[in-house]
Amino acid sequence: MAPSVAARILDASARSRLTALSDVDLDLIAADFTTPEAAAALAEAEVLFTCWGSARLDEAVLDAAPRLRAVVHAAGSVKHHITDACWERGLIVSSGAAANAKPVAEYTVASVLLANKRVLQIRDAYRTERRSVDWDARYPGFGNYRRTIGIVGASRIGRRVLELLRPFDFELLVHDPYLTADQANALGARAVDLDELVRSSDVVSVHAPELAATQHLLDSRRLALMRDGATLINTARGSLVDQAALTAELVTGRLNAVIDVTEPEVLPADSPLYDLSNVLLTPHIAGSLGGELSRMVEHALDELDRYTRELPFAHAVEPETLIHSA
Known about the structure:
The protein is of the alpha/beta class. It has helices spanning 3-9, 12-21, 36-44, 59-63, 84-89, 97-116, 119-129, 135-138, 156-165, 181-186, 194-200, 220-225, 243-252, 293-308, 319-322; strands spanning 47-50, 70-73, 92-94, 147-152, 170-175, 190-191, 203-206, 231-234, 256-259, 279-281.
């Protein structure tokens, strides 16, 4: 992992537990494996404890790591550093995606509830007018009772969002090409095709993985299907939404949006999304940050503990499912 990442995630408690579980040099943090110190450690390593900023584990790296058996990743996706060579070598891999799903789902649920209450618009109007207003007359039907929420992607995060939304008085729709109708019912939702989902939902929340097949999954045609006044939430990846088409819709005021991920990751300074009153734009903060990082680290340390006791990982990454996930 990058040294700056290690400084953020490895507090005294984590360092103490990591030392207790393994023979580790906590002063050696490798963002790549080309330095003499890293190469020497790699030659003896049985487990790699990784996080953001890790170099790719390609054939050359694995050839220099004859004793390597496992990779424990203290973050979400492993696609940035786990290669086909890892699977060919028979490595076992664990991911913290389940731990990282929790804050993203929490952010999403909060966004759903605030979106249906028209919080952004009412905040701005109240700030400007500073008087008593008949909000029901101005926003007829606003609120969370019997609203329809569409979840795009039954990923870990998508499933967690559905779980958290079940106690509310919502109709829940879900679209995922790998989800059956019975599986959707078990999640408390109704499986529909994507066009029906965007056409029928008051809020559409995106939780699909970034794949070639999901590039601009929500394009101009599908965005045009959304109801007037509906809200789009994207906490997945910016590439899943045609940003130019979404911006055009948002500028008109027809739709609302909660956008935590964009393409590029930091928008140009002149993007209208910074200033639109119908847009809540945040800089990729839905996932684990601050105190939430400790959850991911504890999750990874639990996996390392299982490895030391010769137990299978509780959150193993399987190569056959990785191609369809984040």
